[in-house]
Design brief:
Strand order of the largest sheet: 2-1-3-4-5-6
Number of domains: 2
Number of helices: 10
Shape: elongated
Number of strands: 6
Oligomer: single chain
Structural class: alpha/beta
Length: 203
């Protein structure tokens, strides 16, 4: 289990993070960026860094400084995460971008995803990326895709990319039973009985 550094100078965010994580993770709160860099240089361990974007004066400079610590997994938080700003952050090798006040259960799921070497991004960004992908393949997509709802299209594409039900649950942030229900409808509309058959429809 990785230790977590909570970097924020906002008391409300600090308390929310600590209340959400303290029962399952060992956390260290820091509010001075130079002090955090010193802490990282003195501890040769793998950390998950939860970085409140509004607590640093220059996020680009901060991420550049953190590149020296290659073992760390950096998650960026903002009380108002934006899709277009996220496109810039995605180029900086961060592992996640979310709302600072995200629900406790989702925050725990996010940390678990990072521990499993997966990335995690807020729902609107995930939808934006998927919709962009859908637009690029729309002209050549299989006929059955026109019969699917938006959620079913997203899940069908995830299945075609080889994602498991568990991974779809994590990305869509919905219940496993809901995912299974969507997959049942997708199979019916596509006229297939397996994930392999569905994936072949996209070839």
């Amino acid at each position: 289990m990785k230790k977590i550094i909570l970097f924020t100078n906002m008391t409300s965010i600090q308390k929310h993070w600590e209340n959400s994580l303290s029962s399952k993770y060992l956390t260290t709160h820091l509010s001075d960026f130079d002090a955090m860099l010193k802490f990282l240089s003195e501890h040769d361990e793998d950390f998950i860094i939860m970085l409140d974007e509004l607590s640093v004066t220059d996020i680009d400079a901060a991420l550049t400084s953190l590149e020296a610590f290659s073992k760390q997994n950096t998650l960026i938080f903002n009380s108002r995460p934006e899709v277009h700003h996220a496109s810039t952050l995605l180029q900086r090798n961060i592992q996640g971008y979310e709302n600072s006040y995200m629900a406790k259960d989702n925050l725990l799921k996010m940390i678990q995803s990072i521990e499993s070497s997966q990335k995690w991004f807020f729902k609107d960004l995930t939808h934006f990326i998927i919709n962009k992908y859908i637009q690029t393949v729309n002209e050549s997509e299989p006929d059955f895709m026109r019969l699917l709802t938006q959620h079913e299209k997203e899940i069908a594409l995830m299945i075609a990319d080889g994602l498991s039900n568990k991974e779809i649950v994590q990305k869509k942030k919905i219940a496993l039973s809901t995912v299974k229900g969507h997959i049942h409808h997708i199979f019916e509309k596509a006229g297939v009985s397996s994930r392999v058959e569905l994936a072949l429809k996209f070839k």
